[in-house]
Structures are given as structure tokens and as C-alpha cells.
Amino acid sequence: MEPLGVEEVKGIELEILDEFVRVCSEQGIRYYLGYGTLLGAARHEGFIPWDDDIDVIMMREDYERLVDGFDRWRSSERFSVAFYRDGRSVYPFAKIVDTTTLVKEDFARKDIRTGVWIDVFPFDRVDPEDLRASKRIARLSLTRSFIVADPSVGSSLLAKAAKRIVCPIAHRLDAVKYARLIDQVARDACDRDTGYVAALVDDGYPPRPVPDRVFASAVELSFEGRALSAPVGYEELLTLHYGDWRQVPPEDRRAVHVAEAYRLPR
């Protein structure tokens, strides 16, 4: 296998993003840049310099259309949706992957691998006063994290010790089952319009409800030379997630995603 450098991974992610945007445009599916990618577009007009992830977000209805239809609408088999429903992912949200590549994440068990990807997060309706769904997801997510974790990797001696005790038991459980449960709880969290949405599948606890006016329409932001869709209230969304997002953080607060990426032999 051919190792891939950071810039090569970014280039592949941009190709995945281009395919994703093409599908969404042709199928009338709404998407928005999200999280660090939205921050990068708003502050740097591209990747955050120390980050190599691409995140997009969608309301639940558009998200379901995408995961159900992407593999029919794709331009080639190089691109595919990885999702727990077909057993191809242990995550409770979808990834669009490049099937000609392989990624080994530093924190995950060695048997859990995927291609270079972009993350696609669904936003569901939530009641900010009702935390029951979020609490249940937090418990399920903690268990899932031990199921997929590499017990030899940890941010501290205490974390490594906890993993060595818990992981041998947790590894007997089914990560796909827990991903399914997390997504189901998120979908069923609220059956009425409260004026708020959240990415329950990945928000942690407590959740971060976002007023749905943030997503009332879309505006274009520049990202690596591309005009891409962002929520009309993107500044409010960034403030909710990052506080003073215009301020570049000091080096010791810059989160770096660690993984090994390879191009598979043809």
C-alpha cells in the first residue's frame, strides 16, 4: 500500500466533497458546511491549517434521502456511503468514503478501518428542556467508544488503565448495534416542531440545541476555491459551538486528528 501525506488526504477529501455536492445539487438535497469545515470556510476560506477533516451537516429528511440514494446516484464505485445500516460502519452517522483508500485511526481497534472520508451529520428536532434522549445517547456512546477503542492507546495513564479493564469485555459487544441504537434514539427524540435542532448522534452531553432559524436558508462561503453552502445563520452557529470563533487559538489548543492513510493497490 502507498502511504498518503496530509496534503494528499486533503486532496482526496476535496474530491469526495465535490462528488457529494454534485449529488446533492442534482437531487435537490440541502446540505451545509459544518463544524471545523464551516469554521475553516468562515475564518480561512479553506481548511483550518492544522486540521484535515471535512464535515457537512443536513436536516434529518435530507440526510435520509442521501444515505438511501447516494450509491445509486454516484458517478463511480470509487465513492460510497459507509453507514451502519449496511454493516459497513460502526459510527451512528454516515461517511462518504473513497473506496480506493484505507485509513487506520490511532484510537480505534486495528480491525476497524475505512477509506478516506467526509463526515455527514444529521440534525434532529429537539426539546431543549427534555434531556432524556441526550442522556441515553451519552450512555450508549460511552459503551460504543469502548467497543471500538484500541486499549493500548490513551491520552493518559488512567485512560489506558480504564481501557485495559473495560475493552476486553466491551469488544464482545456489537458496535453496529450500538450505532443503530444511538441513531434511533436521535430520530425519536422529539416528534414536534420546537424551533430547535441538534446533532444528537454526535453532540455529547449536554446537547447543543440550535435555533432552526439558523438553517432558514443558505448562503455561499468559499472553501478551497469552491463556493459551498453554509447556513444563513452560520455566525450564530459558530458562536454556539466555538465561542469567539474569529480568534485563532494558541498552538496548545489546536486539536489534531491522527490517522494513517494509504492508497490501496489496484
From TrEMBL:
Signal peptide: none
Superkingdom, taxonomy of origin: Bacteria
Keyword Transferase: yes
GO molecular function, one term: transferase activity
A GO BP entry: glycoprotein metabolic process
Ranges of residues in domain LicD/FKTN/FKRP nucleotidyltransferase: 24-243
Keyword Transport attributed: no
Keywords tagged on the record: Transferase
Stated name of the protein: Lipopolysaccharide cholinephosphotransferase
Originating organism: Berryella intestinalis
Source species taxonomy: Bacteria, Bacillati, Actinomycetota, Coriobacteriia, Eggerthellales
